[in-house]
Write a structure and sequence with these properties.
The chain contains six helices and eight strands; from the N terminus they run ββαβαββααβαβαβ. With about 240 residues, the protein is an alpha/beta fold. The protein has two domains: about 140 residues, no CATH class; about 55 residues, no CATH class. A hairpin with a 2-residue loop joins strand 1 and strand 2.
Length: about 240
């Protein structure tokens, strides 16, 4: 996982993790924050989870840069380094962080260790080497932050700063809201040929999944679901095809 940035009712993440890890991340963060704040309501948006597939290393780099620039774009802090949340930037690669167990929710010492160690490693690229990925990522973040900073200043805005952000009440409501019911992209890829290929793979998965589900509902417990099926395998023990490689 490259970045986890809780923002309002969502978590911006850029990762290539399995569905179970995403579920556990959301579950434990929500329970821990609710326990610490004495809350019982939903922490995250009640909308369906949205996973955006990024086609290439360059697309991943663009998305990470966008995430890093979010607090600046919102006029909260002037640079990502000032953001009080979790923000692991390229300069931190190679560092080892020791994180103490929170006193709320994770208090059971027989289940949770007193501290955990987090090692910051470079992004694992599919096309680019680690060195090239880190170099391009650092440059992309600088460009994105500079654009966000210039936009805030040009609009006559100013940055709240780290201390003011930390002083905000978690009960405070946003004064602006995102538009609803718009298109929700499944894939982002600058390369149009790659984008078409990924969308075709998605369409093929939907067809094969529907066929397998119809067979399952008809009583065929030996039907093989396409690779990528998660809930049917976890909840019902369905057979899933092996992935490539």
């Amino acid at each position: 996982m490259r970045d986890v940035e809780p923002s309002s009712h969502r978590a911006h993440r850029c990762s290539r993790n399995p569905a179970r890890l995403r579920r556990e991340l959301h579950r434990t963060v929500a329970k821990a924050l609710n326990a610490a704040q004495g809350q019982w309501e939903n922490l995250w948006s009640a909308e369906q989870y949205h996973s955006l597939e990024l086609g290439s290393d360059e697309d991943v780099i663009d998305k990470i840069a966008c995430i890093a620039a979010n607090p600046t774009e919102a006029g909260l802090v002037e640079s990502p380094e000032e953001w009080p949340g979790v923000m692991l930037l390229p300069e931190g690669e190679g560092k080892t962080l020791e994180i103490q167990r929170p006193g709320k929710y994770f208090a059971n010492s027989s289940v949770f260790p007193e501290k955990v160690t987090l090692r910051v490693v470079p992004m694992m690229g599919r096309q680019l080497s680690r060195e090239a990925s880190s170099r391009r990522l650092g440059a992309a973040i600088k460009r994105a932050v500079a654009r966000a900073r210039e936009a805030v200043i040009a609009a006559g805005g100013r940055f709240l700063g780290r201390q003011v952000v930390l002083g905000q009440s978690f009960q405070k409501r946003a004064e602006s809201y995102e538009p609803k019911r718009g298109p929700i992209p499944q894939v982002r890829a600058r390369n149009r040929t790659l984008l078409k290929a990924i969308l075709a793979r998605y369409a093929e998965f939907q067809v094969r999944y529907r066929e397998a589900l119809d067979a399952w509902r008809g009583g065929d417990r030996g039907v093989v679901f396409p690779f990528g099926t998660w809930a049917m395998r976890l909840v019902h023990g369905a057979v899933v095809a092996q992935g490539p490689g």
